[in-house]
Amino acid sequence: MQQPSHRLRLQQSISLYKRTNLLPKPLRYLAYALIYWLETLWIDAKTEAAVNTAIDAYKAQEGHQAAIRPPTYQETTKAGHRLPQMRLTAPWLSNSPPSQQHESNDTTTTD
After folding, report:
1. Which residue from 53, 55, 58, 67 has the fewest beta carbons nearer than 10 Å?
2. Separation between Cα atoms, residue 17 and residue 10, nearest integer Å
3. How far out from the chain centre does Cα 96 lie?
4. Alpha carbons 97 and 15: distance in angstroms, whole number
5. For the chain, what are the domain ranges?
6. Are 35 and 17 in contact (CB under 8 A)?
């Protein structure tokens, strides 16, 4: 398992840390921890804002079709079988005739 990297990633953070050369080592360590913490918060905020902007743009483009229809569930029992047969069909195939649904590979059956 790879250990997390505690190096500074932004050039502004690195240049700010380089200015702490004159501080004693314990204070320099605390300054590094503070800069690293602020940098992590900044990167997380920028990432979250970018993702939310992209999601909002997608929803505006697609017309907010967030609801996904559930699959069609059918259960039948045949003579000679002790267990019922269950069939789940994708929602976009549920409007086709039952003979086509049975022949397609998108159905799942159990014996």
Report:
1. 67
2. 11
3. 32
4. 68
5. 11-62, 72-103
6. yes
